[in-house]
Amino acid sequence: MLSSRRDLSNGQAFSSSARVATQQPTIHNVFEPVTGTWQFVVSDPSTKSAVIIDPVLDYDPATQAITTDSADKLLALVKDKGYTVERILETHAHADHLTSASYLQKKLSEIQDFKPPIGIGKRIEKVQKLFGKRYGVSKEEYDTVFDNLFEDDESFTIGNVTAKAIHLPGHTPDHLGYRIGDNIFCGDSLFHADIGTARCDFPGGNAKDLFQSSRKILSLGDHVKIWPGHDYPPAGRDPIPWLSVADHREQNKHVRDTISEEEFVALRTERDANLNAPRLLHQSLQINIRAGRLPAPLESGHRLLHLPLKLNGLDW
C-alpha cells in the first residue's frame, strides 16, 4: 500500500507524515500523453506568483507539424487561476519531446507585460556545444537562449515560497531537480516506482551518478513528494503524478533501500543496452538546445532540422 493519498484531478496530495511548517505551493500537474510527459504549474497561493516546469511543444514526426495545443492549455490554466508566471524552468535538454519554453515566454510577455526568464542548469553549455556540433547548429543560435543558468543549490523564490535548484546528474550531465517547499520536481531522474529510473546511455550520462542522485533525492524527509518528468503507465494504471520519498524508498524497483549501487549499475547498464533511441531524439535536441526556438527560415521560408541517415554499411 502507498503511504500517501492523491487527487489526480488537481494534483493536490496529502501525506500521513508530519509536515514542515513552511509556505507550501499549489501544484497543477498536466499530463501530455503522446510523449508521456508531466508538465507542472507551481504557484504561491498567497501571491499568485508561479513557475512552469518542463512544458511540451507538440510535434508530429509523420507530418513535421508543430502545434501548441499543450502549451496553450498551460496558458489557459495560468489565465484561469490569475497567476503571474515569474519563471519557466527546464530540468535538462530533453531528448524525447520538444520544449515550448520560448513560445510560452513570448505569449506570457504579451499577456502579463513581463518576460519570464527561462532557467536551466549551468552545465547546459557543454550539452549545447556537443549537440550543436553534431547537428550543425551554430553557437549564435543557442548561445544566449537561456536567461538563467542555475548554480548548484542556488536558491530562489516563487512569491513567498522558497525553491532550490539541485544538480542531479546521471540521466544527463546538466540535469537539475527543483525543490519547492516540500516537493522536488526531479525531471528524468526517478519515474514511478513500477518503472524505476531513467536511462543513462546519453552522452555524459552515468549510472553511478544517477544512483547517487537518487540517494540525494531519497535522503529528503519521508513526507517530501517526488514529481517525475514522465510516466509510462502499463495497461490498467493511470498516470500518477507523485509518490513520497517513503514510497520510493520502499517500492521503487531500481533504487529502493535494499538495492546497492553495484546492483543498480548492473541492472541499469543491462537495460540501457537494449533500449531503442527515443522516437523524437534528433528533433528534440536540436530544438531544446535552443530553449524551444525554431530554426531561422531559409530564403524559401522553410525551417529545417537535420536528421542523420542510417546507411547500414552502404556508401557511394
From TrEMBL:
InterPro entries (alphabetical): Metallo-B-lactamas, Mito_Persulfide_Diox, POD-like_MBL-fold, RibonucZ/Hydroxyglut_hydro
CDD domains: POD-like_MBL-fold
Location of the region described as Disordered in the Swiss-Prot/TrEMBL record: 1-20
Keyword Metal-binding: yes
Keywords: Metal-binding
GO biological process per UniProt: glutathione metabolic process; hydrogen sulfide metabolic process
GO MF term set: metal ion binding; sulfur dioxygenase activity
SMART domains listed in its UniProt record: Lactamase_B (SM00849)
Protein name: Metallo-beta-lactamase domain-containing protein
The species this protein was found in: Penicillium angulare
Lineage: Eukaryota, Fungi, Dikarya, Ascomycota, Pezizomycotina
